[in-house]
Amino acid sequence: MNLKNISIRYGISTLGLILVALGVGISIKSNLGIAPPSCPPTIFNLKWSAISVGTFTWMMHLIFIGSQALILRRNFRWQYLMQIPAAFVFGYMCDASIWLFDAFTPAGSYLWQILLSLAAVVLTAVGIKLEVLGDGWILAGDKTVAVLADVFRLPFGTMKVWFDVALVVITAAFSWWAFGMFTGNGTTVVIREGTLILALLTGLCMHFTDPLVDRVIGPLVPVRNE
Known about the structure:
By secondary structure, the chain is mostly helical. It has helices at 3-30, 39-47, 53-72, 83-102, 110-134, 140-152, 156-179, 193-216. Helix 3 packs antiparallel against helix 4 (83-102). The longest helix is centred in the N-terminal third of the chain and has 28 residues, at 3-30. The relative contact order is 0.20.
């Protein structure tokens, strides 16, 4: 594949990362709960605010990559190391998204909070599809789910549910230890119905957004055997 086609693929994947990061920022702004993969970095940031959510995000992703290496051992391929730059790119995109939405006033009514959570669902759904369509960056969370699904011989979707549940449980336990409550620090909500909305509705939303993305962006994606 030539340089132009590689650039197009990574450009589409990067757009996907941007949209997912925007979904993280807007879900935090909703103050109704955020997606499971972003729960641990956010609760750690509430405890140690000198370290940004994005920094905790890429640190978590590096742990995921290390876990993959331990599980796969000799089957860990050098291509998987592309998860490292993806972790840094996505982490700092999350920070940029949070900074962007900080400029807006906090969500007022409960209805507005729900609407922001639903907007995060759509952004995340489209972003994930673009990542897959571009086939450029590899996010460590998704790759770790794939590795675990292979090890335990479970469908990816089933393993994803268990993986997300584990992240939420870790977040809730840390939140209780740090703040005496399971949902956050009393000001910023990390786990609540918004978490459930993002966990359950993102996959459902992709049934509707995937065909649209395929129709609009699909023709721009270079064929692998070119």
